[in-house]
Amino acid sequence: MASNILQVPFRRSHSVTLSNAITQYISSKYDQRPDMFAEDLLIIERLRNEAINVQEPHVSGVSRLVTYAAQLKWLGGKFPVDVISQNNIRFELANVIFNLAALYSQLAFSVNRTTSDGLKQACNYFCQAAGVLTHLRSDILPDLRTSPPEDMDDMTLQSLEQLLLAQAQECFWQKAVKDGLKDASIARLAAKVSDFYAEAGDHAVKSNAISPEWIHHMTAKHHHFAAAAQYRQSLDCLEKRKYGEEVARLRDSEACVNEALKESRWINRTVLGDLQGLKTRVTEDLKRAEKDNDIIYLNPVPPKSELKLIDRASMVAAKAPSQVTDAISMLGENGPLGQPLFSKLVPYAVHIAASIYSDRRDRLINENIIGELENMTDKLRE
Asked: Where is the BRO1 domain (predicted)?
């Protein structure tokens, strides 16, 4: 069914057996035996299977992805980057975090947005989705030490973040309309929706992963909400008897709607229907306002350049859940994300440091003690 918002699709996970890779690595690189960690190996494989089988928007999927991601973050300190070549632990973590963001966006999409509670819930899910992508871009991918895939490059993620915030703000705007807030307030909310969509589109055109259809959608929505903002501001002008300014804002609103309708070949019928509904209202109000001003009020109509810019009211922000950003601190004896796996395995950095220490110790003993003893023995024999 067509919708006036978008949901981020899941990334497909590769079929790898993480437990086998970890077993081989422990066998070849550590002094500890893999069978010491048999239970942990079973658990990590189960957590992975549960996470990669999250393929539909159900809230139960959040805990599966979050729990697996927490263990992967913990394991990142136990193993080097290249445990499974390209499909290393950090790459696996990036996939899981991306899919968590996708899940939040799909949960928002599936919520009933015809009610105030549904709109609040959808707004919150979109903000969480944006926050998870911000965390992925800022904290996870820099540790990858390789170029991320196209759908996780910087421009793509920034575009998706702004798109999700645009849709969160749109939910807030829709609730404001439903609750009957003042036109000036609704105008400020709509103007910010337009800004978010504009930023999403600006990043999208620099991405190789965002589809042309999505770019057309973002462009149409940017102009749509610019038009909606001016329309609501015109209603505020009418209430305040600023008849000339009312006409000017309605004219600009009509121009913005017409700009959005240039995308009509590529946008779905729901978005197109929203635009056509707005155009009908704007056209009717403009016709009435021009007639009233020409015959009754005779106020000068200012050019667009003289219109005061509509203030922005941003009501949303990217906010990743704490179990994502502070995952490791939530692992422990009674931690909400469970016991940390492989806790008895010496961290890789410590293992390397111990090896270096052993080598240096042996070299010092050979050079300074054994060497000196051999010299003294030779002197005694002489």
From this structure: 4-380
What are the tokens at 181?
A: 């807030």
- Looking at the fold, whether 172 and 110 belong to one and the same domain comes out as no
**Separation CA 230–CA 236 (nearest Å):** 10
**Per-residue pLDDT at 85 exceeds 50:** no
How many Å apart are CA 335 and CA 146, to the nearest integer? Answer: 32
Is residue 274 domain-shared with residue 324, that is, in the same domain?
Answer: no
- 262: containing domain: 163-314
Q: What is the CATH number of the domain that holds 67?
A: 1.25.40.280
Check whether 13 has a pLDDT greater than 80: no
Instruction: Write down the pTM of the prediction.
Output: 0.90
The Cα-based distances of 91 to 64, 138, 236 in angstroms read 18, 14, 52
- Sign, CA torsion 160/161/163/167: positive
Please, is 34 exposed, middle or buried when counting C-beta atoms within 10 Å of its C-beta (0-12, 13-18, 19+)? Answer: middle
**CA–CA distance, 114 with 102 (Å, rounded to integer):** 22
